[in-house]
Amino acid sequence: MAQQKTILRALAGETLPTPPIWMMRQAGRYLPEYRATRAQAGDFLKLCYNPELAAEVTLQPLRRYDFDAAILFADILLLPQALGADLWFVTGEGPRLSTITTAEELGRLKPVEEIHETLNPIYETVKILSEELPKETTLIGFAGAPWTVATYMIAGQGTPDQGPAHALKSANRPVFEGIMHRITEGTIAYLSKQIEAGAECVKLFDSWAGSLQGDDFTEFSIKPMQRITAALKEKHPGIPVIAFPRGAGTKYIGTHAATGADCIAVDDGVDAAWVAEHVQPDGCVQGNMKSSHMVTGGQGLIDETRRIRDALSGGAHIFNLGHGITPDADPANVQLMIDTLRGA
Ligand code: 1CP
Fold this sequence. Notes:
The structure is a single chain. The chain is of the alpha/beta class. It folds into two domains: 1-26 and 283-344, no CATH class; 72-265, TIM Barrel (Alpha-Beta Barrel). 49% of the residues lie in helices and 12% in strands. It has 16 helices and nine strands. It has helices at residues 6-11, 32-41, 44-48, 51-64, 78-82, 103-107, 115-132, 146-155, 163-171, 173-197, 215-235, 255-259, 272-278, 293-296, 298-311, 331-342, and strands at 69-71, 87-90, 94-97, 138-144, 201-206, 241-245, 263-265, 284-289, 317-321. The strands form two sheets. It has a seven-stranded parallel sheet with strand order 1-4-5-6-7-8-9. Strands 2-3 form a two-stranded antiparallel sheet. Helix 7 runs parallel beside helix 10 (173-197), helix 8 packs across helix 10 and helix 15 packs across helix 16 (331-342). The protein is globular and about 60 Å long. The structure holds coproporphyrinogen I (1CP). Coproporphyrinogen I binds next to strand 3. The site of coproporphyrinogen I has 20 residues, from strand 3.
């Protein structure tokens, strides 16, 4: 039977009359119903590990908006936790992890086969969603790309310039590469299980790819994503992969071929017309509306939605933001974006 789901058609390279749409962090703090369910769960991590409630928050934005995809509600830092790192969230500040910077600490990480003991509830969430989602909605699974996950495991928290990870890369290359290798293999195992549980597409978030310069970008952003993509496609033929090397700038050119991904997600640091000329000829692209329009709304939002849609109308495109929607966004602006995209 011919593929009917719009997201999967775009991922296969089809140019659609109107691009399908979903939104990074579509389940999140800008929605009052999300905040209520998180309170019911107790905290963010309890919400991630509660399959019924995680499925519920995944579905919440779909009740409000006619999005074409749902993204599993989880976090990229659950894999480090499954590998044995301590993980907690400080309210108002963000994630904290125990750090891995020495051979001894690397040696204490759990083997990849043991991650599922921690991650089984996530696969259960995927299973629930694959049963409950409307038939036209695509279910997206995800993980962090190895470089981005490594930056958190090495620093123990988010960092403005990923300094600690860059420092370890220079000071102790074997330990740095050992961490990258363990994350890469763990990500393949984690995403394989998500696919077996019902994810129809997976996305790799390399949120901090932009701080990798020169050969490092190829070695530590592109190559690990290529290895994961190839392994997943070998195990699950035809599974579409979205790669998001955020902040790549001109290095977005050629990333479809270099990663093997079906779609490249682009942030808002590159112009849609430039993306149409230099990236989209190689395959589907996703993005790249500024998240701030979800706060400010109005004619600016309308003009930008049309501009990006029209600039990328000559090829396969999934409409999305360039990064996640922020907690201060107005839910009404999301509806305005969808109406504008599908209207004149
Ligand atoms: O208080 C809360 O409710 C926590 C806020 C929150 C949410 C809603 C965090 C903490 N994670 C999430 C969910 C989440 N994270 C999803 C769910 C699906 C969706 O709706 O999109 C996804 C895909 C992520 C991915 C993620 N987590 C990334 C990659 C994408 C990106 O935003 O760059 C990163 C870097 C993280 C780490 C993380 N988790 C949470 C925060 C606040 C952060 C960033 C911390 C930092 O760098 O300081």
